[in-house]
Design brief:
5 helices, alpha+beta, 4-stranded mixed β-sheet, about 180 residues
Length: about 180
């Protein structure tokens, strides 16, 4: 009976891999992020693909690194310079207006070498007080909501990623016997 189930799983895995979609959970990954929100981590961990995601597996060589950065646009640089002069000249009475692209990057690293990277970009205009506690490069509610919405796109892209399929196959090749022996 065990052999029949294993054969069925092998056939199902082959069919899913031949269609270009990862059919099972990936091996354990260490999650690292520049974002202060746990919502993205929770949403990724709730997926079947990254169900073994962990924040505390510090010795793990497989990592999912989620980072964000703000990139100035051409129009945003001109508006930002004018806005900075006005904000500085008014001693902070006028807000600093920025128009930047928020770029969210999901990067898969193995032994600190990037094997796959997924970038998502959206343009946001912000008006911030130069004396605000959050700083000029923190995310507001609208940006956090957009960042959370990228998780579904990332999971879709990751499930179709050739690099992650190859990683999963290699991991299974080396470690499937170990996992099968511990589960019996």
């Amino acid at each position: 009976m065990k052999k029949l189930i294993l054969i069925q799983l092998a056939v199902l895995t082959f069919v899913c891999f031949s269609q270009g979609v990862i059919a099972k959970a990936l091996p354990p990954f260490l999650y690292t992020s520049t974002l202060e929100s746990d919502e993205i981590y929770d949403k990724i961990k709730d997926s079947e693909l990254f169900s073994a995601l962990d924040k505390e597996g510090l010795g793990n060589s497989l990592r999912l690194y989620v980072s964000h950065r703000f990139e100035a646009t051409a129009g945003g640089m001109a508006a930002g310079l004018t806005s900075a002069m006005l904000a500085g000249g008014s001693l902070g009475l006028l807000p600093l207006v920025t128009n930047d692209d928020l770029v969210l990057t999901y990067e898969i690293r193995v032994h600190n070498q990037s094997i796959a990277s997924f970038d998502y970009r959206e343009n946001f205009t912000q008006a911030k007080n130069i004396y605000s506690e959050g700083g000029l490069y923190t995310m507001d509610k609208e940006e956090k909501a957009w960042a959370l919405s990228t998780v579904a796109r990332f999971l879709d892209d990751a499930a179709k990623s050739k690099e992650l399929m190859d990683l999963s196959e290699e991991y299974d090749f080396y470690f499937s016997d170990i996992e099968n022996n511990t589960s019996e």
